[in-house]
Write a structure and sequence with these properties.
Shape of chain B: globular
Largest sheet of chain A: 5 strands, antiparallel
Number of helices of chain B: 5
Oligomer: heterodimer
Structural class of chain A: alpha+beta
Distance between the termini of chain B: 50 Å
Number of strands of chain A: 12
Shape of chain A: globular
Largest sheet of chain B: 5 strands, mixed
Helix content of chain B: 25-40%
């Protein structure tokens, strides 16, 4: 019979996660429906909401967001206004009261497009300790080894410009076709975070100064197609790969236009 | 642990229910406590028909492990009206505006409206649209629901 465990620290959580048939649950918005429908597929539910990871802390302009912070927590924090558009793009109010930052990172949700563009760092715990590195590198890492995202960090000292756009079949409460975050630093360098253009979130360099000199989707298409050529977008009930590829520059252009 | 007896305060009454790891709060409400105003729709957080308040926060009961409700306070649609003859202003406004056809989404809509008006007594039309954005209605086209919530807001804040 399926067990339910609520570990009190990260080491215990990782130990439980290493067991056969373990499934991790935080907000539950992505996977508890599946667990409830097919409990026989799992042996233990590891509830990671009692690890003390819901804090949002500030240190000299660097904001550390605990992985268990919810979308609603982000929306309630005026210092995180840059992320509000992306946080609001996730579901409706009830979902945002539960859906966590860590879950969004693990499942590659819309918030990640913003976090990647902003050059966020992520703190990941494994059995051999915790490490901090760019979120973009996290998606290159070994997902098979038990790991727990505990924190994501945004450096708000990096002044610049930012835009976000989620393209979906409905305005609200819909999965994205493509979500794009576009960040330009003070030197004019542009980073574009994208969800929906590949089996995983990706970040690509955009045309320098894009936020000051917006380009149309048609103008952006060539460079973006080239930058994303190695990736095959997912096909699902929301969009085909071809449609997602075609919509990527549209989402970027709209993120820039604000 | 595989089973646990939780203590949960539902509509101001403490209840004790034995639940499994995979039991949803939705199924506790409907199957154990008989509160069938909490609807089982998509069971994936997509339709909002199972919406309840947990410790005052709007929540999808279908995505909430019942284990996690231990020690919490839950309000369902059954707890919104003072009595069947004394409906909440949101419920009265839904009737007046014909905001319900098949009625499946109505309890979730009312819970979302209540969550909004508890925090934002004088919402704009956009606030209302945003507040019910997690609730799907396939009958009404939403306009009558938004009208009802705005009228209830006027009445409650008058």
């Amino acid at each position: 019979m399926l067990a339910y465990e609520t570990p009190g620290d990260v080491a215990d959580a990782l130990k439980l996660m290493g067991g056969a048939g373990a499934v991790v649950i935080a907000g539950g918005t992505t996977n508890f429906g599946d667990i409830a429908e097919e409990p026989h597929k799992y042996s233990v539910v590891v509830d990671i909401t009692k690890l003390g990871l819901r804090k949002i802390a500030r240190d000299g302009g660097v904001i550390s967001i605990g992985a268990a912070a919810t979308m609603a927590d982000l929306l309630g924090d005026p210092d995180l206004a840059t992320l509000h558009g992306a946080a609001r793009a996730v579901g409706g109010p009830a979902l945002r009261n539960a859906a966590t930052v860590g879950g969004n990172i693990i499942y590659g949700g819309d918030l990640v497009a913003a976090l990647l563009a902003l050059g966020a760092d992520v703190v990941v715990s494994r059995a051999d300790g915790a490490s901090t590195g760019p979120l973009s590198a996290f998606y290159d890492g070994d997902a098979a080894q038990p790991h727990l995202v505990t924190e994501v960090r945004i450096d708000t000292n990096k002044k610049g410009k930012f835009g976000f756009y989620k393209l979906a079949r409905r305005r609200d409460n819909a999965r994205s076709v493509v979500a794009a975050g576009v960040a330009q630093d003070t030197s004019g360098r542009v980073q574009i975070g994208l969800v929906g253009v590949a089996p995983r979130p990706v970040v690509v360099e955009g045309p320098a100064g894009l936020m000051d000199a917006p380009q149309s989707a048609a103008e952006l298409r060539g460079a973006l197609d080239a930058a994303l050529a190695q990736w095959e977008p997912p096909t699902d009930s929301h969009a085909t790969a071809a449609y997602r590829r075609r919509m990527a520059p549209v989402a970027v252009a709209r993120a820039v236009a604000g | 642990m595989t089973v646990k007896t939780i203590a949960v305060t539902v509509n101001n009454v403490e209840r004790h229910v034995t639940v499994k790891a995979d039991t949803t709060l939705l199924d506790v409400m409907r199957d154990e406590l008989g509160l069938t105003g909490v609807r089982a729709g998509c069971r994936r957080g997509g339709c909002g028909s199972c919406s309840v308040m947990i410790d005052g926060a709007l929540s999808f009961s279908c995505l909430t492990p019942a284990m996690r409700a231990d020690g919490r306070t839950v309000e369902t649609i059954e707890g919104v009206a003072a009595s069947p003859s004394d409906l909440h202003p949101i419920q009265r406004a839904f009737i007046k505006h014909g905001s319900s056809q098949c009625g499946f989404c109505s309890s979730g809509m009312v819970m979302s409206a209540k969550a909004l008006l508890d925090r934002t007594p004088k919402p704009t039309r956009d606030d209302v649209v945003e507040a019910i954005s997690g609730n799907t209605c396939r009958c009404t086209g939403y306009a009558s629901i938004v009208d009802a919530i705005l009228e209830a807001a006027d009445e409650l804040s008058a």
